[in-house]
From TrEMBL:
It comes from the Bacteria. The keyword Oxidoreductase applies. This is Thiol peroxidase. The gene is tpx. Gene3D superfamilies: Glutaredoxin. Residues 19-167 form the Thioredoxin domain. GO terms for molecular function: peroxidase activity. The lineage of its organism: Bacteria, Bacillati, Bacillota, Clostridia, Eubacteriales. PROSITE patterns: THIOREDOXIN_2, TPX. SUPFAM superfamilies: Thioredoxin-like. Pfam families: Redoxin (PF08534).
Length: 167
């Protein structure tokens, strides 16, 4: 549920379609760190954790990205995809500085295709709200967390425990 989302304690409006458990995961495109096109379809057949962050240049987003990068090393059957609206150049710099080698990090800066199709685009800010979406091997949404306060962490343990039930 994505109602009552706040940022800095102030209510925000999320644009786009709210994604729900049981939905077919919408196809979306984004931009890789090297400025090449990214297509969500390229991950078909894999279990996917989509880690949504406003900007890798903030501490909580940094920790969230590092946490899921570490988890990506533990199971070769799981793909971790981190998405923000940071420019690919900033994402590349961040990944190098933080040894992010296992998670895929992409940018939604051009069209907010992901943000609108999954309901994470913050009205008037052109940022994504924080959250987690888990998509199974058949591209069905199995878990969704729209973090209630953008400046707080998602429930890492809950999503990681949930992932174990899908394997």
């Amino acid at each position: 549920m994505r109602s009552n989302i706040t940022m800095g304690g102030k209510p925000i409006t999320l644009l786009g379609n709210e994604i729900k458990v049981g939905d077919q995961a919408p196809h979306f495109t984004a931009v890789n760190k090297d400025m090449t096109p990214f297509s969500f379809d390229s991950l078909d057949g894999k279990l996917k954790i989509i880690s949504v962050v406003p900007s890798v240049d903030t501490k909580i987003c940094e920790l969230q990205t590092i946490q899921f990068n570490e988890e990506a090393t533990k199971d070769p059957n799981i793909v971790v995809l981190t998405i923000s609206v940071d420019l690919p150049f900033a994402q590349q710099r961040f990944c190098v500085a933080n040894s992010i080698e296992n998670a895929i990090v992409v940018s939604d800066y051009q069209t907010l295709d992901f943000g609108m199709k999954y309901g994470f685009a913050i009205d008037k800010l052109r940022l994504l709200s924080r959250g987690i979406v888990v998509v199974d091997t058949n591209n069905v949404v199995r878990y969704v967390e729209y973090v209630k306060e953008v400046g707080t962490h998602p429930d890492y343990d809950k999503v990681l425990d949930f992932i174990k039930t899908l394997e």
